[in-house]
Every structure is written in structure tokens, then in C-alpha cells.
Design a protein that fits this description.
two-stranded antiparallel sheet, seven-stranded mixed β-sheet, MULE_transposase_dom, MULE transposase domain-containing protein
């Protein structure tokens, strides 16, 4: 940093729209000290050019300090980052726009890094770039029994959401394919699901045919996987499901969605059709109309009852016909379903948890929802994976080991870092 002086100087720029020459006038009332040259030395530039492909800026600066055999280097890290970006841009900036540059990198240099672009048709309002890892797909696609799909944000400066399809391999996660997708405010609500169906459809054509699919509570992911592999058992991530129940039970002033007691009673005769949330109860006064007013002491689920519900929920999620009960007697999938509904309903009934029961039935214990999260809904076998942690581990490594070295990278740099740094 240079010393400042009260020189009362001024700087005047004259720029013409008909000429490429700008006139610059500078005036000072007193002399300044000589300017310090802050350009990187040539041998530093040579080092950066040699190692730009294998080291990130955060790794280059300490290495230069070691080369110079000094800790306090005379140049700031921003200068190193800038020159590193200038050198690396020759590798990943292949077009004027980041998205076109990312696509061109896959087309021209994908074979060099053992990846290949997927031709995914875009929906109006979306932008898409996708690829798969060739040797992973060639060696493991036909052996994929469990496939997880999850997304992450904050990997790039273009607000692209990044999806990964990860196969389970004896406890390890093998990333088969990746999808960058961005949506705008005017994008149709179902556009992302359609793009995901096309992305997963390409994986299916490559030989991926899992027995189990796994995702969090994102309905676009759930619907896309069910539409692609219609006979596969979709398993909702147990961690996400348990967190969703816990968070909803904690919203103590919120009322549940409309509950159909007749439907519940029709499916299970032991469910009392009069056991409904307060907002759906009829007035005792015959002259009154509409739902009863909300009481000031209203509670969706008192705190003391939340943990017992979570324990029952976890128990019901884990049961399976291939796992005999403590007394040794096996139960069918239908037995487990009926007993789980009965146990949760009677617990709520005994504790007058009307609101909680309405929510649990609507969101979890109706047949279509039960099939998503209960392992017993698929009686032929038990999935090894209960959560999407193998995909979350991939995101953790990508962000903490690679992307944290970059300052809000554009999508082409994020794709380049993913292929050249994270995948190896």
C-alpha cells in the first residue's frame, strides 16, 4: 500500500465514441513517491503456468512462499489469483458465455478427462448442461442396485442447481452422471421434473436399472425417478423424513391441511371419523355456521408428545417382512402397514392429538405416502441405504476440498473444477 498525500490532484478522462483513443490528464500540486511495481515476477508467472492445472490459487500462494524461502511474500494473494485465473481461463473458457463454454469443453475435451456430454433437451425457461463419467458407467451401470439422486446449490455464480446420480457400490458412492440446471422466474413449475426425467432416461439407456431409488423430499426428484423406473422401489431418505416430521411437529400454532376422516375410516375401520382437527369440528350451537374460532391456547402438538411420535415413526420406517419380530413371528407387508397405522392412530387418540394425527395421515400414513418411506412397502428385499448421505458426502468433498478455493466461479469453471479436481 502506498502512502497518501494531500496533493489536491485531479484526474481527467476524455473518451470519444468515434475513436479508440482516450485522453488522460493528471495534475498534482506536490510530488508523490515513486510507484512500486506490483507485477508478479516472471519466475512466479512461470511457476503458476506450470502448476495451474494441478493446483488451485489457495495452493499456489503457499507453494510460492516455499519457493522463495520466505513466509512474507511481497505480492498479495489477489495478484496470484488473478494471474492463475488468466492462465486457467485458456483451459476452461472456450466460448463467450459460461454455459456455451461448458458445453464446448465437454464436446472438445471430454474424452481427455473420461467424461461425455448428455444431450438433454431444455424446457422453456431452463438452461441445462449434463455429462456422465464413462468408466464409472461402463463398469457399474449394469450392477447398480441402488441409485441416489440429490442436488446442491452455491457451486457457481450462475445460480445453477447441480444434480448428481450416485450408485451404491458395497457402501461406497460412485457418481455416474451430473446435471447443471438453472430456472428463471417465469419457468413452468413442472419444467425441472421434465428435465430430470430426460436426464434419468439417458442413464436408463446407458444400462442403469436399479431395484431401489433414493432421494430427499423434493417431489420433482421423486416423480422423475418413479416415472423413469416404474418397477423400482423409491425410498425416501430416512434422515430427511425424520427431520420433516420433527420440524412440522414443532410448528405449534400452524393448523394441518384438510383431513378426510371418511377416507381414513374407509381404509381402516378402527379410525373414528369424528376424531378430526378442531378447525373441522362442527359447532355445538345449531345457529352457528362455519368452523369454530381458533382458541388462543391452541397447540398443534405439545412438546411432551413429539419424541414419542418420532420414535413410533422411526420404528414404522424400519420394519420389514424379512425381519421377524422379537417373539420370532413373521408379518406380511400388509400386517406391518395395518399395525403401524393402528399404533400411531391409537397413540394420537389416547393423547387427544387430533391435529398431529391429521398431519401424519395426510403426509405419511396414507397408502401413496406410506409406499415412499416405509421399507416394508417392498417386501422382496431390503435396501442397504437408508439415507442420501453418499450423495451428501460427494457435495461435502466438492465444496470443502475444491470449490472453496474459487470465488463464485462461473458454471464453466465449476464444471471444469468438478471434472479435473473432484472426480479424480
Amino acid at each position: 500500500r502506498m502512502e497518501r498525500f494531500p496533493c489536491s490532484g485531479w484526474l481527467h478522462l476524455t473518451v470519444s465514441d468515434v475513436s479508440e483513443i482516450a485522453i488522460i490528464s493528471v495534475k498534482h500540486k506536490c510530488d508523490h513517491v515513486a510507484y512500486l511495481n506490483i507485477d508478479l515476477p516472471n519466475h512466479w508467472k512461470a511457476y503458476i503456468e506450470e502448476h495451474a492445472r494441478t493446483q488451485t490459487p489457495g495452493q499456489v500462494s503457499p507453494s510460492l512462499a516455499v519457493v522463495e524461502k520466505q513466509i512474507d511474500v511481497p505480492f498479495r494473494s489477489k495478484a496470484v489469483y488473478y494471474y492463475w485465473g488468466t492462465v486457467c481461463r485458456r483451459e476452461w473458457r472456450l466460448s463467450d458465455t459460461p454455459l456455451a463454454s461448458a458445453r464446448k469443453f465437454l464436446e472438445e475435451r471430454g474424452e481427455e478427462f473420461n467424461v461425455r456430454a448428455l444431450d438433454i433437451k431444455e424446457e422453456p425457461g431452463t438452461e441445462v448442461v449434463a455429462f456422465y463419467v464413462k468408466d464409472f458407467v461402463n463398469e457399474w451401470a449394469r450392477n447398480t442396485q441402488e441409485l441416489g439422486l440429490d442436488s446442491t446449490w452455491n457451486t457457481n455464480g450462475g445460480n445453477f442447481e447441480l444434480f448428481a446420480a450416485v450408485a451404491d457400490a458395497d457402501g461406497a458412492g460412485i457418481p455416474l452422471a451430473f446435471l447443471f440446471i438453472s430456472t428463471s422466474k417465469g419457468t413452468d413449475s413442472g419444467a425441472k421434473q421434465i428435465v430430470l426425467e430426460r436426464f434419468l432416461g439417458e442413464l436408463k439407456l446407458l444400462g442403469v436399472n436399479p431395484e431401489f431409488t433414493l432421494s430427499d423430499k423434493d417431489w420433482s426428484e421423486i416423480n422423475a425417478m418413479q416415472a423413469t423406473w416404474t418397477t423400482a422401489k423409491h425410498q425416501l431418505c430416512f434422515w430427511h423424513a425424520l427431520r420433516a416430521v420433527k420440524q412440522r411437529l414443532s410448528k405449534n400454532k400452524a393448523t394441518p391441511a384438510p383431513y378426510d376422516p371418511e377416507e381414513a375410516h374407509h381404509n381402516f375401520s378402527f379410525i373414528d371419523p369424528q376424531f378430526v382437527p378442531l378447525a373441522q369440528q362442527k359447532h355445538t350451537d345449531a345457529t352457528a355456521s362455519g368452523p369454530p374460532p381458533k382458541r388462543p391456547d391452541y397447540q398443534f402438538c405439545p412438546a411432551a408428545h413429539r419424541l414419542p411420535i418420532l420414535r413410533l415413526f422411526a420404528k414404522h420406517a424400519s420394519q420389514h417382512p424379512l425381519l421377524p419380530e422379537r417373539h420370532g413371528q413373521a408379518r406380511t407387508a400388509e400386517d406391518i402397514y395395518r399395525d403401524a397405522v393402528s399404533e400411531m392412530y391409537h397413540h394420537c387418540f389416547a393423547n387427544n392429538l387430533r391435529e398431529a394425527w391429521a398431519y401424519l395421515w395426510n403426509s405419511w400414513y396414507r397408502r401413496p405416502r406410506w409406499n415412499l418411506w416405509a421399507r416394508s412397502a417392498y417386501s422382496a428385499s431390503i435396501p442397504c441405504k437408508r439415507t442420501t448421505m453418499m450423495v451428501e458426502a460427494l457435495w461435502r468433498n466438492l465444496k470443502r476440498l475444491v470449490l472453496h478455493m474459487y470465488n463464485r466461479p462461473p458454471v464453466d469453471l465449476a464444471l471444469y473444477a468438478l471434472i479435473t479436481q473432484a472426480l479424480p
